[in-house]
Please model this.
Amino acid sequence: MKPWGRGAKADLPITNQVAESPMFGLDLMEEVTGDRNNLRSALKRVQSNKGSPGVDGMEVDELADYLRVHWLRIKEALLQGRYIPQRVKRVAIPKPGKGKEKRKLGIPCALDRFIQQALLQVLQSRWDATFSESSYGFRPGRSAHQAIAKAQSYLKSGYGIVVDLDLESFFDRVNHDRLMSRLARQIADKRVLKLIRAYLRAGILENGLVSIPTEGTPQGGPLSPFLSNVVLDEWDKELERRGHRFVRYGDDCNVYVNSRRAGERVKDSLTRFISHRLKLKVNEAKSAVDMPQNRKFLGFTFTGGRLANRRKIAPESLRRFRARVRQLTRRNWSISMAERVRRLKTYLTGWRGYFGFCETPSVLRDLDSWIRHRLRCVLWKQWKVYRRRKAELIRLGVDRELANTTAWSAKGPWRLSHSPGVLIALNNGYFDALGLPRLDPRVSIQL
Model:
């Protein structure tokens, strides 16, 4: 058998593997369906995630009442291996920053989401401990921030070149037979294996037509992220066996090396492994061997130069942020300032919760200033006429002479939003009082 890469012994493929006893016994289905705490937790999780109804039209809020009436019948079907999942409704949503490119999501019915969640909780409670320490996506107690911090630690240790591998349409290309084979090594209960296979092959309803998938794990169901980790765990173990320093979050994987030459060798070797062993495809156009500051990972990148290896918000993430804020602060949108700030607050609070992890606070301060300038423009336009503008400026503490000069100015709203009169009236405290949160980490979010 030919090695996957040249040179190092660590790049040879796995040969003989010792058979392992299953992690889950023949009574796994009883464990899933008979534990009341597991079922309550699954129901609570599905309800908290909300989501659109599936092909049966059942809303998540209706699920609890439905289960009170029908659960014994459904449980019996699951225990006898007779349960058949309903079709999955497929919808296409825009990919962030990808223009017209769409991501296809599958929406299972509320009942199937509940069953998948109950099964996931039992499988993940034991299986998760076997996954790689370098895998961070869709795992309890792990986060994207931890993945980014781990990548940063490799950079600070001198591994300044990243091998960024992009898997092409990963969730649509997962080989069902290989996935089921890996599941069968750990799951002895044939009913559970049959149920998972049924979920993988559940008919997909799209534009009125039904198709039966032969590969892929449809995004949208609770089980899909876990199954993706099962598939890619083989990749993780291979990377560990070769001694690579890597971080994986879902299908985003970066390998860190100390030279471009090593990076090119690793990229070629891993591309062959992914193609031949995992039966997946690497997107060559989006994969690269490069310096970390030229690549994006989970919405972040890193600084170069004298202050190298600090966490920084990726330019693409900033463009998406500005586009969304422009929508929420457009001047021709006839809503009250209170409602506008409420919607901004929802978006900004969530965005800061994730991107506040950056180590470049000046970027956040600049964004704060930009947002307030846009809101000053909105208010100036809403005040419309000279008398209203002058009266509002005086009411907000501007002296009469400056208020008169500012109100009569022929400058446009954007230039006036920087003028002394408007800055005095609509200062930072004014927007703090409205409840507008700050992105600057030195200032607490107003509640």
